[in-house]
Each structure stands twice: as C-alpha cells, then as structure tokens.
Design brief:
With 252 residues, the chain is mostly helical. Helix content is 80%, strand content 0%. Among the domains are: 2-58; 66-184, no CATH class. The longest helix is centred in the last third of the chain and has 66 residues, at 186-251.
Length: 252
C-alpha cells in the first residue's frame, strides 16, 4: 500500500503528459522521501513500474461501447420513474377491480335481506373498503343531509366506471325502488368481470411463461453463439484475409 501511494504521487505529477520519459520519472522518484535510502536498482525498478502505469493511464480514452452503455443507462434512468408509474397504475387498476367485485359480493348478500337500506349497504362497504374508503366515508358523513346529493357527490369523486354504476344503482334504490330491483343486473355484471379477470390472468401467465422460456434458453443460445458461431466466423474471416494476401503477393 505504501508503494502504491508513492506511485500515485508520481502519477499525479505526470498524468496527462504523454511526452514524459522514464528518466524524468526516475528523477522525480529520487526526490521522494520514501526512496531516500534506496539504491539505483530499486529506483530504476520503481521508475520502470511507474512509467508502465503512466502509459496505461495516458492511453485511456472513452470508447464507443462505454458511450453506448452510458446512453443506455441514461435512458433507463430517465424512463424508470415513468415505467414505475405505469406499473403502479396497472396494479392499482387490478386492486380497484378486486375491490369492486368484493362490493358486488357484499351487495348480493345484503340485497335479499329485509329492511336493508342504502345506508346500511354503504356502512358494510366502508368496513371492507381500502382504495375507495375516503369517498364512501365522505358519502356516509353527508348522507343525513341528503342521500341523493351524497351519492351524487361520491359519483363525482370516483372515476372508476364499475363503481359509478354501483352508485347509480344505490341512487335508484334511494328513490323508493326496491334494492333487489336496483341491482337486478348485478349477477351478470359480476360474472362478466370474473370472466374478464380470468382472461387477463391467463394472458399474464402466458406472457410470463414466454419470458421464462426466453430466460431459460438465453444461456444456451449465448453459449452456442459465443463458442461456435463467433469463432467460426472469425476463423473464416482470418482465412479469407490470408488467402487474399497470398493471392495479392503472388500476383505482384
């Protein structure tokens, strides 16, 4: 570590100087306190070692693949937050769909009970809500001031269409329509969303299977290309170049 530290002192002095000679480095080494009691052979060895390091440092430059990697990582770093938001939106949509299906199940159980009303349904929905809990809580707090108005305000606060349909059915039930009649199409809607979710899950599983197969075959393909095709192409190009040079030399 001490030797490396001394080498770095000399390298800092001559870094970027492409015309520096080994003799100049030797003179700089002699001035270091670390080599004060060293003999000529040790100083020559140190100067040769530092000169070799200096050649490596001065010959370093930005290569094309380094620039390409920098651009790729820059694009990934720039787009990563957007991709993350897209992923969160997709997951949020799935969570909203699950929660609305849960609401539909609760309503289907309550709608056949006598003396159940819209306020009781909202209370039960609030107990099992997560994403739409603030909107349902607000609706319950404003329910005594006007059921229709509270539901209308909730409908304006919600942008998810399946939940808006449930709110509209609750509004119809407020207008003295039996709750069972207000949700007469709930069974068919629930079956539709279940089939839709099933189809989405099957597509997701199929896509994940394709990705898994690609990842599984990637090492074999890389091995095949790297150890068979690339060497064969290299040997072919080398042989072609040698043959071309031989023909050119024979012609001359």
């Amino acid at each position: 570590m001490e030797v490396t530290e001394q080498d770095n002192i000399i390298l800092d002095q001559f870094k970027g100087n492409t015309k520096a000679t080994q003799e100049q480095i030797r003179k700089a080494v002699e001035k270091l306190d670390y080599y004060e009691e060293a003999n000529d052979e040790e100083i020559d060895t140190a100067a040769e070692r530092i000169y070799g390091k200096l050649q490596v440092v001065n010959s370093e430059y930005l290569q094309w693949f380094e620039l390409l990697l920098a651009c790729v990582f820059a694009v990934i770093g720039y787009m990563a937050p957007i991709w993350l938001l897209y992923f969160q939106v997709k997951m949020r949509q799935l969570e909203m769909e699950d929660e609305v299906m849960q609401y539909q199940t609760i309503i289907m159980m309550l709608m056949r009970i006598e003396r159940v009303n819209v306020e009781m349904i909202l209370e039960w929905l609030e107990r099992y809500s997560d994403i739409f809990k603030p909107q349902i809580t607000k609706c319950l707090n404003n329910y005594e001031a006007g059921a229709w108005e509270a539901l209308e305000a909730m409908k304006e606060d919600v942008s998810y269409l399946p939940l808006i349909r449930i709110v509209e059915s609750l509004q119809a039930a407020v207008e003295k329509i039996p709750i069972k009649d207000a949700f007469d199409e709930l069974d068919s809607e629930r079956d539709y969303y279940q089939e839709k979710r099933k189809e989405s899950n099957e597509r997701l599983i199929k896509r994940q299977g394709m990705i898994g197969k690609f990842i599984g075959f990637a090492p074999m393909v890389t091995l095949f290309v790297g150890y068979l095709i690339v060497p064969l192409v290299f040997i072919g190009l080398t042989s072609m170049t040698s043959s071309f040079e031989t023909m050119t030399s024979g012609g001359m």
